[in-house]
User: Which sequence fits this backbone?
């Protein structure tokens, strides 16, 4: 009797852990004609069938389909520790800092090819963005990336990913069992 390795690609009918922006995760069964909700949009799951686990997807600008994501998410980018003489104590949020009007933003949403283009436009048109500290600039970019660049990652439902997902969503459902504690239990049981 030989070992059968788990499949490396997602097949129709498989259950996957769908992680959105590295924060939220959900369990999805990939059925023909099935749909999943990502960033307040409902999209078909068909593009996820046949891809390798770990593949990332992003929403099209219309929000009606999933596109394979080959770039790097702004949520994953981190800057090195930089010391500057800037501080945010003089910055005031009075609603006039953004030079991009609502109409211009809507037009940009219609013409932009991806969320990164919108985020760059928001940062360049912001009057206070250049005066912020590096940490604040990164925080601002991440906040806008959550809104305009939803990146969904297809994960294999292993014990670790399921435990991590439940621990982040509803820790009371698994009695607060952390993924590292589960790993110790499995090791001690010699499984």
Assistant:
């Amino acid at each position: 009797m030989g070992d059968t390795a788990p499949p490396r690609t997602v097949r129709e009918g498989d259950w996957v852990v769908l992680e959105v922006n590295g924060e939220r995760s959900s369990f999805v069964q990939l059925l023909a004609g099935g749909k999943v909700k990502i960033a307040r949009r409902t999209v078909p799951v068909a593009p996820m069938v046949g891809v390798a686990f770990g593949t990332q997807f992003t929403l099209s600008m219309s929000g009606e389909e999933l596109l394979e994501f080959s770039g790097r998410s702004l949520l994953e980018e981190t800057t090195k520790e930089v010391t500057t003489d800037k501080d945010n104590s003089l910055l005031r949020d009075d609603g006039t800092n953004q030079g991009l009007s609502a109409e211009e933003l809507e037009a940009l949403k219609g013409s932009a090819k991806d969320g990164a283009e919108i985020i760059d436009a928001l940062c360049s048109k912001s009057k206070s963005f250049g005066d912020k500290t590096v940490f604040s600039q990164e925080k601002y970019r991440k906040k806008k990336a959550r809104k305009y660049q939803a990146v969904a990652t297809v994960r294999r439902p292993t014990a670790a990913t399921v435990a991590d997902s439940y621990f982040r969503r509803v820790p009371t459902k698994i009695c607060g069992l952390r993924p590292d504690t589960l790993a110790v239990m499995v090791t001690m049981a010699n499984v």
